[in-house]
Predict the structure of Aminotransferase class III.
Amino acid sequence: MSDRYRYSEEMLERAIKSIPLGSQTFSKSKTQYPWGVSPYFITRGLGSHVWDVDGNEYIDFVNSLAAVTLGYNDPEVTAAVRAQIEDGVIFSLPHPIESKVAEKIVEMVPCAEMVRFGKNGSDATSGTIRLARAYTSRDHVAVCGYHGWQDWYIGSTARNRGVPKSTQDLTHVFIYNNIESLNKIFKEYPEKVAAVIMEPMNTAEPVDDFLASAKELTHKNGAVFIFDETITGFRYANGGAQEYFGITPDLATFGKGLANGYPVSAVAGRAEIMCLMEEIFFSFTFGGETLSLAAALATLTKLQKKPVIKTVWDQGKKVVDGINMLIDKHGLQDVLSTCGKSCWSFLLFKDTDVCSQWELKTLFLQEVFARGVLTLGTHNMSYAHSDEDIRNLLSANDAVFAILKDVVENGSLKKYLHCEPIVPLFKVR
């Protein structure tokens, strides 16, 4: 047990006795953070920084899996929640703030004519699928990206244990930037596909008008076109990736960027389809919980009044440009690369002759954590990330890339790595 992470490790050993994996979220669990060299529990956050249970401070580039876009404990959001809590959290009838937030989303998002709320991204994506099935009277679904934990989607992944085979058989995966892979699904299941749901972008840029082609092909085959904007929403642009790319879907889902970390998600889209919410069952005791909606209203208002999106993109560009320079400096072009948009970018690792990408990534995580940077290889930028934060990130990467270079050139992994490598248990996208 390491002294730096002593309390984290003790707490994890305690937690796994009562909580499977010791975490409520797969991507925050011990599967992603190598034992002996990682923090496991965070106690507080402010701006772009967080502190673990051992008191170690980090610049956070995970930002609660991209849910925190303004920064931890944003003053306007916190003030709005404090004011609302004085009046109450949930009531026996709807609260007016539900309409205020829905109207704000309609104002900001191109496809939004009506809105309904959930708590998690999985609620929203599952709601769109039920809507599409009701609207088309069809059952099959084409998917591209990560769309949550519910049976209809997760049955199409390696994590399909517990999902009925009959449900698995209704979901079909197509390949991003490969329109023929989508067309193949329509050909194989003519007049049976209810919806095409996709992340408009994650790691790869759309090429050859892929998004427009996917929408056209979807409508040609009588299906509903859905953007899963759980991450891209209120991050790529105030109106999401649909505004950024100029492609308006029939329905869209939002979540992570909606309330700066408070638990709320949304289904938004064409009124003709959204009206079926009166017929299908999409209902939550906590769907109108006011604290999260107060946070959402404050977050969306700040997005409109402050240069949040521009700042996130500009600061993210400094990160990506700086990392690319360091890759060149250390001659690691065959090992490391960056991708994605600057507001949500990725550092990718490749296998080498002397070690696997997972061994390299584990070593990278070990070393950046020790230098006070929290990342899983992504850079989920927030409005709070300062130039000093970026300088410190790049300084840490400079030192760590030098170690990676030594490992690649001299096969010295055992010299540096103080833990077992992480293994690829489940790739979400």
The longest strand covers residues 193-198. DSSP finds 16 helices and 14 strands in the chain. The CA atoms of residues 209 and 357 lie 32 Å apart.
